[in-house]
């Protein structure tokens, strides 16, 4: 069983600290400077940084390589891993490799369908789903074996994360799915971006009613809106995204040059509300290609300095 | 045709164990041809289940019924009365038939009695082989009428791997290497040189990879 915290993120969460994580998207190219630059913007402003894995099914630098760049810059990465592109053999092999490079946090995901990306002709793999990926990482950590039961020499002991979308349909099932992910081995959860606080609150109450908030650290996801156009686009085109009319109207109601400021104001209000909710152990800021805004947001939310 | 194989009896017994009134529902099309789910197989399986339940001292009433096709609502409707007399349906159709029956009778448990295995041909009596994966974008013209997508374990499009031996696949020694067959075809046609042509990556969008598919024939819809 687990004893020592696998990572700094785990240590902070187990100490009951309110954590802050952010997201960093690797470049569409082999330029490591991009990662180092984004890392510099986030260093010291957050406790760990998620590195996305070919998000939206667009080819980017691998999350393992980008996570290693962050590690070398003194930033703790959360390596995201999707089951869309690799079968169980490649996934397990990459987990071993990532651990050997010093990566200690993993976020297990299924991944966006390739039809939404730049290469819709691609064959998808989905050999296993995110639930089984979580279980696999736990089996490595607690059973010391790979999926075949073969003992591993120095089994990776990762801090295991999973995603949850409180806004997806059917609502009644979402808490059951969260329970299933916890059973599979999830230690922490990063949620879909929250704009509908009412609904998120209801989901948290349901989760807490099932005793789930005692078993897992929930990091509430937020994404600052840059413009009314982005808000509208996300509301209409991003699967599982719930942006209430009131927010869309607020974004559209300010002059264009003030929209970004309004988006950040909404984000700060959301963070303030989330901090008051029992069971929320941190926030996950997904500032999409807007990493320079993370530090100001964390600062204005009075969450600086980080431990 | 769609080829299927009846599930092991142990699995069927486990699945049906909670029920006391069971309808074994056959399908008279593909699964009949491959001896998995036609009228004869329904009768044989029903007898087996009756025997097994008697042996276990379990009360089980079994009714038998076979429709022409379980993938067409008009035929499924014929089973409505028989379904209503039972607690659950053990369908011996392919997976499409099982789902169509479940959709038609939302208040009844519908259990699969057959493993749907592939789209294939009857090679000779009692032997069926997979020849098509229903990828939605037929490229048989490039391969002399022999499909490497469905018949090569590595889905290789530009010639055989280095593992085949004496025309047999490295994965299954009793399976013909599909590339060996393709090369034989092109040789017989005197077109071996055509196999130098580069075949680009396949577009998997029309396959299941792009999500469940739907075919709408405007000229045939009501």
Itemize the secondary structure elements and their pairings:
The complex is a heterodimer of chains A (307) and B (222).
Chain A: H1 8-14, E1 19-24, H2 32-42, E2 48-51, H3 63-72, E3 77-82, H4 88-100, E4 105-109, H5 130-143, E5 159-164, H6 171-184, E6 188-193, H7 197-209, E7 217-222, H8 228-237, H9 245-252, H10 259-275, E8 280-285, H11 294-300
Parallel strand pairs in A: 1-2, 1-8, 2-3, 3-4, 4-5, 5-6, 6-7, 7-8
Helix pairs in contact in A: 8-9, 9-10
Chain B: E1 2-6, H1 9-16, E2 21-27, H2 30-33, H3 39-55, E3 61-67, H4 73-76, H5 80-84, E4 88-91, H6 95-104, E5 109-112, E6 114-124, E7 127-132, H7 148-151, H8 178-188
Parallel strand pairs in B: 2-3, 2-4, 4-5
Antiparallel strand pairs in B: 1-6, 6-7
Entry keywords:
heterodimer; A: 307 residues; alpha/beta; TIM Barrel; 8-stranded parallel barrel; 11 helices; 40% helix; 15% strand; B: 222 residues; Rossmann fold; 2 domains; 4-stranded parallel beta sheet; 3-stranded antiparallel beta sheet; 8 helices; 7 strands; 28% helix
């Amino acid at each position: 069983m687990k004893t020592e915290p696998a990572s700094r993120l785990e240590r902070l969460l187990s100490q009951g600290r309110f954590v802050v994580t952010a997201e960093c998207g690797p470049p569409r190219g082999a330029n490591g400077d991009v990662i180092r630059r984004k890392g510099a913007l986030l260093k010291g402003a957050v406790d760990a940084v998620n590195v996305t894995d070919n998000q939206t099914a667009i080819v980017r630098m691998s999350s393992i390589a980008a996570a290693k760049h962050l590690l070398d810059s003194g930033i703790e990465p959360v390596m995201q891993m999707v089951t869309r592109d690799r079968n169980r053999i490649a996934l397990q092999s990459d987990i071993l490799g990532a651990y050997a490079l010093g990566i200690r946090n993993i976020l297990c995901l299924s991944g966006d369908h390739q039809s939404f990306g730049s290469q819709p002709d691609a064959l998808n793999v989905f050999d296993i789903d995110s639930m089984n990926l979580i279980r696999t990482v736990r089996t490595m950590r607690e059973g010391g074996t790979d999926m075949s039961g073969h003992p591993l020499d120095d089994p990776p002991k990762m801090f295991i994360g999973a995603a949850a979308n409180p806004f997806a349909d059917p609502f009644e099932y979402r808490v059951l799915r969260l329970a299933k992910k916890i059973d599979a081995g999830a230690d922490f959860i990063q949620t879909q971006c929250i704009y509908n606080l009412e609904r998120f609150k209801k989901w948290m109450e349901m989760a807490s009613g099932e005793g789930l908030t005692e078993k897992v650290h929930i990091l509430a996801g937020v994404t600052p809106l840059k413009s009314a156009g982005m808000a509208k686009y996300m509301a209409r085109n991003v699967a599982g995204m719930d942006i209430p009319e009131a927010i869309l109207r607020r974004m559209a109601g300010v002059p264009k040059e003030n929209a970004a400021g309004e988006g950040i104001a909404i984000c700060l209000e959301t963070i303030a509300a989330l901090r008051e909710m029992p069971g929320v152990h941190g926030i996950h800021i997904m500032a999409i290609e807007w990493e320079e805004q993370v530090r100001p947001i964390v600062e204005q939310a009075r969450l600086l300095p980080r431990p | 045709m769609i080829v299927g194989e009846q599930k092991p009896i142990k699995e069927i017994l486990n699945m049906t164990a909670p029920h006391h009134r069971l309808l074994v529902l056959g399908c008279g099309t593909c699964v009949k041809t491959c001896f998995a789910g036609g009228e004869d197989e329904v009768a044989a399986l029903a007898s087996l289940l009756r025997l097994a339940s008697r042996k276990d001292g379990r009360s089980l009433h079994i009714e038998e019924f076979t429709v022409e096709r379980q993938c067409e609502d008009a035929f499924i409707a014929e089973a409505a009365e028989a379904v209503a007399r039972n607690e659950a349906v053990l369908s011996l159709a392919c997976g499409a038939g099982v789902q169509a029956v479940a959709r038609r009778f939302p208040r009844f448990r519908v259990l699969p009695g057959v493993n749907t295995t592939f789209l294939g041909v009857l090679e000779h009596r009692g032997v069926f082989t997979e020849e098509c994966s229903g990828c939605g974008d037929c490229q048989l013209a490039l391969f002399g009428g022999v499909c490497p997508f469905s018949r090569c374990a590595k889905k290789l499009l530009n010639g055989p791997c280095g593992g085949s031996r004496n025309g047999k696949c490295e994965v299954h020694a009793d399976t013909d290497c599909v590339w060996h067959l393709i090369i034989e075809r092109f040789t017989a046609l005197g077109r071996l040189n055509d196999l130098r042509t580069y075949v680009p990556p396949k577009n998997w969008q029309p396959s299941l990879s792009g999500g469940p598919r739907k075919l709408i024939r405007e000229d045939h819809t009501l």
